[in-house]
């Protein structure tokens, strides 16, 4: 059995004037070859939403929502080649038939993920997020050299408009942030948690000079015990409020994996480089990215290819998230980044 971990971040525009962001952390567990299940760590409740071809419902009985795999593609350079249409009906089938939408989403992924990186992103999944998730990544090789990215087609066309408010652009950048901070060059999957002296990501032991280990050692290690002890929703909220100056968004405080994906996203979309206040931990985290030539290459590439509306600061968007309750970091799935 191969266990792989998957993390999802969700962005939703609930209305033009009032944005509600629901961010998810998701795990995919590969059970043999056939069965795949996803658990979502929702920001607004404790529901776990397993997803499979059988469309299993909620464990815990709080929310029953359908998330469905629709079509799996193989990535071949600039192209995607259909590998599998999942058995779906009704509205899901409509999304499956509408391959123009799949292609439009892929065209955006293609702009954001550099060509030389596509060999690492070997599969592309179109799925239905049903308002619970907007995207995910999962490693589909033992050594973390190959990854699958999934994008929720319903979220990509929220309110019928593609990439409304640049939300899917933002999701794709965030998911790419996961791949580049968790892939083989950054994380050694052959070292177990017990043997790992650096940050253990869930997928493996982060390499000493990896960005996620640098982030963890400098900005998480000192509060790790407190973080791990913050179990209730209130405790998590209190943890965030106590340390909010460390985080680019509330979601970033979910675990180091989500933190670095959010930091990467902010680093890419925000103009103007690192702000001068070196005492600010968000700026220190963004500086980790500026200190890495590879990250700068990613940034330059992505900024050339995204629209102006997508180049906003997450901290500005973050003000819209104030009413959100907290992501549940204590789900196994969420802890996979940080445990
Ligand atoms: Zn994420």
Describe the structure in your own words.
Helices cover 35% and strands 17% of the residues. The protein is built from twelve helices and ten strands. The strands form three sheets. Strands 1-7-8-6-4-5 form a six-stranded mixed beta sheet. Strand 7 and strand 8 form a beta hairpin. Helix 4 packs across helix 8. Residues 1-64 and 318-339 have low confidence and may be disordered. It binds zinc ion (ZN).
Give, in spatial order, the strands making up the sheet with the most strands. 1-7-8-6-4-5
Q: How much strand?
A: 15-25%
Determine the structural class based on helices, strands and strand pairing. alpha+beta
Task: Summarize the amount of helix as a percent range.
Answer: 25-40%
> Given the C-alpha coordinates, what overall shape results?
globular
Number of domains: 2
Low-confidence stretches: 1-64, 318-339
């Amino acid at each position: 059995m191969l266990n792989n971990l998957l993390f999802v971040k969700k962005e939703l525009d609930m209305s033009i004037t009032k944005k509600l962001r629901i961010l998810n952390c998701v795990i995919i567990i590969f059970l043999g070859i056939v069965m795949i299940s996803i658990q979502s760590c929702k920001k607004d409740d404790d529901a776990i939403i397993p997803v499979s071809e059988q469309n299993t419902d909620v464990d815990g009985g709080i929310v029953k929502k359908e998330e469905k795999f629709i079509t799996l593609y193989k990535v071949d350079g600039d192209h995607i080649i259909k590998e599998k249409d999942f058995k779906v009906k009704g509205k899901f089938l409509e999304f499956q038939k509408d391959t123009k939408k799949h292609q439009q989403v892929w065209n955006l992924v293609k702009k954001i993920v550099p060509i030389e990186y596509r060999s690492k992103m070997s599969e592309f999944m179109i799925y239905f997020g049903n308002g619970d998730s907007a995207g995910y990544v999962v490693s589909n090789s033992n050594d973390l050299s190959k990854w699958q990215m999934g994008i929720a087609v319903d979220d990509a066309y929220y309110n019928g408009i593609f990439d409304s408010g640049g939300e899917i652009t933002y999701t794709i950048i965030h998911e790419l942030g996961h791949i580049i901070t968790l892939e083989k060059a950054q994380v050694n999957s052959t070292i177990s948690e017990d043997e790992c002296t650096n940050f253990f990501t869930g997928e493996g032991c982060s390499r000493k000079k990896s960005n996620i280990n640098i982030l963890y050692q400098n900005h998480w290690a000192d509060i790790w015990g407190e973080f791990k002890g913050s179990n209730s929703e209130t405790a998590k909220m209190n943890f965030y409020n106590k340390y909010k100056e460390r985080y680019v968004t509330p979601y970033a405080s979910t675990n180091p994996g989500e933190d670095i994906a959010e930091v990467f996203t902010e680093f890419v979309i925000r103009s103007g480089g690192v702000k001068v206040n070196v005492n600010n931990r968000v700026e220190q985290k963004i500086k980790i990215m500026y200190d890495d030539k590879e990250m700068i290459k990613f940034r330059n590439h992505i900024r050339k290819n995204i629209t102006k509306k997508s180049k906003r600061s997450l901290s500005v968007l973050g003000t819209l998230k104030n009413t959100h309750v907290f992501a549940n970091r204590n789900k196994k799935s969420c802890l996979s980044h940080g445990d």
